[in-house]
Amino acid sequence: MQITNNTAVSIHYTLTNGVGEQLDSSIGGEPLVYLHGLGNIIPGLENALTDKSIGEKFMVSIAPDQAYGVIDKNMVQVVSKKMFEGMDIEIGMQFHADVSYGSGIITITGINGDDVTIDGNHPLAGETLNFDVEVLDVRPATEDELVHGHVHGSGCNH
């Protein structure tokens, strides 16, 4: 069976950035399981998986515009340190916050006196991502999975 829209897909992957640093991997752990065609993974990887079959292995590079986006300079702001009153903040700290597009991650990228630079871009925005992928399983999604928007399995409460 080939990967098409509305199929439940299971893959192992290793993710590296443009300089070859490993960022994530499912090897040695649970595979990534998702519903194909519902936008549950980045568009470039979903497109690369289309029409693949069980047992296929491949490598693909995903440009930023098909991954977590290009860096949007409007998402970088300087705010008052008072916003973090009572906290010991440092560069690299991340917080969940409501931003213009919904809930997102804000990263502190600079501290200069009372000014704190925050970045609302996804931490992997602007990165070319390289995936080494193996397709483990493909099956038709159930009606319940399609209604709920995710694959059902052990531990699922639906």
Helix and strand arrangement:
Blueprint: E1 7-16, E2 22-25, E3 32-35, H1 43-49, E4 57-62, E5 76-80, E6 94-99, E7 102-112, E8 115-119, E9 129-140, H2 143-148
Antiparallel strand pairs: 1-2, 1-3, 1-9, 4-9, 5-8, 6-7, 7-8
Any overview of this molecule?
This protein is mainly beta and 158 residues long. It is built from two helices and nine strands; from the N terminus they run βββαββββββα. The protein has helices at 43-49, 143-148; strands at 7-16, 22-25, 32-35, 57-62, 76-80, 94-99, 102-112, 115-119, 129-140. Strands 1, 2, 3, 4 and 9 form a five-stranded antiparallel sheet that branches. It is elongated, with a radius of gyration of 19 Å. 16% of the residues are buried. Mean pLDDT is 92; it is low at 154-158.
Largest sheet: 5 strands, antiparallel
> Which H/E pattern describes the elements?
EEEHEEEEEEH
Number of helices: 2
| First-residue to last-residue Cα separation | 26 Å
- Contiguous uncertain segments of 5+ residues: 154-158
Q: Which percent band covers the strand fraction?
A: 35-45%
What share of residues is helical?
A: under 10%
Taking all residues together, what is the mean pLDDT? Answer: 92
